[in-house]
Amino acid sequence: MNSVVLIGRLTRDPELSYTPNTQSAVCRFTIAVDRPRRQGEDQGADFIRITVWGRQAETCDRYLSKGRQVAVLGRIQTGSYKNREGVTVYTTDIVADRVEFLSNGNGGQSDRGGSYQGGGQGSFGGGRDQGFGGNETQGTGFSPAPANEGSDLFDDMPDTFQAAEDDIPF
Questions:
Q1: Under the phi-then-psi rule, with left for phi > 0, alpha for psi from -120 to 50, and beta for the rest, what region is 165?
Q2: Which of 14, 54, 62, 70 might form a disulfide with 122, Cβ 3.0–4.6 angstroms?
């Protein structure tokens, strides 16, 4: 089984691009995940690259920014390439099936967030899902927080998303 759950803060704003042939959206960002603190040591962090596909990628690009806390559910993907000097560089990334917005980056205060899930390679899925923190969603892939929480930052966010064949990156 290849399954990863991470909670961390974005180290910079996400970068959105589109694949050349199919024009599928792909969003990449890095999160800092705190390491457990050990006696006599400073708390460190791991910096983990995240890749999100499809409509979920566009949503992440639109609503995430540096400092924002997120929970990511996905899988590890490794790869390699040769750099300009001909040296093989090995990579490890997380391909996100789901990204949940936890806070807006202002000292950990919760804002109006939502959870987004992928059905496969980043398209929005249906079915029943047990979300992070016990929130359940059914069929929509989006679970908004109560309207009285947080700021007006996400007033224009839609209540639901529908998957379309165009959202599948393959």
A1: alpha
A2: 54
